[in-house]
Design goal:
α4 links the parallel β3 and β4 (84-88). The chain has helices spanning 3-13, 29-36, 48-57, 75-78, 91-103, 127-134, 137-140, 160-180, 195-200, 210-213, and strands spanning 19-23, 42-45, 63-66, 84-88, 108-115, 145-153, 186-188, 205-208. The chain contains 10 helices and 8 strands. The radius of gyration is 17 Å and the shape is globular. Helices cover 40% and strands 19% of the residues. Strands 7-6-5-4-3-2-1-8 form an 8-stranded parallel sheet. It is of the alpha/beta class. The chain has a single domain (3-210), classed as Alanine racemase (TIM Barrel), CATH 3.20.20.10. The structure holds pyridoxal-5'-phosphate (PLP). Residues 23, 25, 46, 67, 191-193, 207-211 line the site of pyridoxal-5'-phosphate.
Length: 221
């Protein structure tokens, strides 16, 4: 099966209410074009330089999702063209995105990253921090930011029960926040290994890499 056929098969099985972000990190332009030529526009990258290079080389109507951990000193490189920044996990980062967006008079869409896993290694806010941030005066002053919802990654475990518990808590949190702020509609969770479960638990944006493009051979950044 080609990457394009594989993509179409996966896409065909997703509910229409779920946005598919094709995670193209480490993958070459030719493979991305196969998916683009099947009519797909949403692609995700997690390294700034790779995203900048691919944005330059690929069609300009692609919606680029930044799904990695964003360093404040790199914000200005992606703000002019990024469609949605998924992994925002601090006020400092929000302020920098706002500052760069203000300079060029645009509004940047962001998701707040929640830490829902058991591991110590992943980035993100816990529920309490996130709720405090959303109700803070600081965030209201960031006029060039549009917070659209949340992103998260479940624990790296074989236990579906554990993953389900984490996903359900996330969905409950979003439902609660949505009642306060009706703009927080996007829930980005679910990757190749767990997206059917994620959709069952209320995800409306899944980020799929290896299931579309095949396994990644890691390169150094
Ligand atoms: C790489 C990556 C994905 C995609 O992972 P797969 O398991 O290949 O689908 C999704 N989200 C984030 C944040 C990633 O870094």
């Amino acid at each position: 099966m080609t990457v394009q056929e594989n993509f179409l098969k996966i896409k065909g099985h997703l509910p229409q209410t779920v946005t598919l972000v094709a995670v193209s990190k480490t993958k070459p332009i030719e493979l991305i074009l196969q998916v683009y030529e099947a009519g797909h526009k949403d692609f995700g990258e997690n390294y700034v330089q790779e995203l900048v290079d691919k944005h330059e080389q690929l069609p300009k109507d692609i919606h680029w999702h930044f799904i990695g951990h964003l360093q404040t000193n790199k914000v200005k490189l992606i703000v002019p063209f990024v469609y949605l920044i998924h992994g925002v996990d601090s006020v400092k980062l929000l302020k920098e995105i706002n500052k760069q967006a203000e300079k060029i008079n645009i509004i940047v869409n962001c998701l707040l990253q929640l830490f829902i896993a058991k591991e110590e290694t992943k980035f993100g806010l816990d529920y309490k921090e996130c709720e405090e941030l959303l109700s803070s005066e600081e965030i209201k002053e960031l006029k060039n930011i549009n917070v659209k919802g949340f992103m998260a990654m479940a624990s790296n475990t074989d236990s579906n029960e554990q993953i389900k518990t984490e996903f359900r808590a996330l969905k409950n949190f979003q439902t609660r926040m949505l009642a306060i702020n009706p703009k927080l509609t996007v829930l980005s969770f679910g990757m190749s290994g767990d997206y059917p479960l994620a959709i069952e638990c209320g995800s409306n944006m899944v980020r799929l890499g290896s299931s579309i493009f095949g396994n990644r051979t890691y390169i150094n950044h």
